Amino acid sequence: MTGYEVAKETGISRSNVYTNLASLVEKGAAYLIEEKAKKYTPIPIDEFCNNKIRQMKELKVKLIENMPKRQAEDNGYITVQGKINILDKIKNMISQAKERIYISISNETMETILPYLKESISKGLKVVIISERPFKLEGAVIYYAKREEYQIRLIVDSTKVLTGEIIDENNSTCLYSKKQNLVNLFKESLKNEIKLIELTNRKDD
Prior knowledge:
By secondary structure, the protein is an alpha+beta fold. It has 2 domains: 3-66, no CATH class; 77-204, Endonuclease Chain A (Endonuclease, Chain A, 2-Layer Sandwich), CATH 3.30.870.10. The chain is built from 6 helices and 9 strands. It has helices at 3-10, 14-26, 45-66, 83-96, 107-122, 180-204; strands at residues 30-33, 39-42, 77-81, 100-104, 126-131, 141-144, 151-156, 160-165, 173-177. The chain is elongated and about 85 Å long. It comes from Orenia metallireducens. Residues 1-45 form the Transcription regulator TrmB N-terminal domain. Residues 79-186 form the Transcription regulator TrmB C-terminal domain. This is Transcriptional regulator TrmB. It holds the Pfam family Regulator_TrmB.
């Protein structure tokens, strides 16, 4: 389509249309066909996505090569705010786990991180989950219990802990730490919770 045709089709002024078309060409979302009248055609969506993904991978390599050496992770207490940021932290912790994962989380949030837990199980890691029925995950040790709806507790490799609440983007806060005393405290808390669940189940049986 020519710029004139796009303007006519969309109802946008020709000056704005030409500016936006030039921007699409510059960003790799459209091709410019040089004829008597300049024409524009969209790049196929799969080609556009592949181009962007490849560019991001190349940029990732450059960033890694040029980044200063990372200092040892701070063993203090780090506050993670916002639902998306917390979910990203959970996914990263699970992906970086080497031996075992203990997690207490709602079924709703579980659906978001399920692929990462499945991958950990496929790598032979021990995965222990406290959640609500009817959640199931083959290869994981699951304990069913009534729990705080928004609460999250995650322990990875007995060296990292994340705890807090996931409510919505504006009301979600978690504490992340590698401090061993805090990790041990939450490990003991989860062990006691699991023992209580087991005792309750025996009474029900």
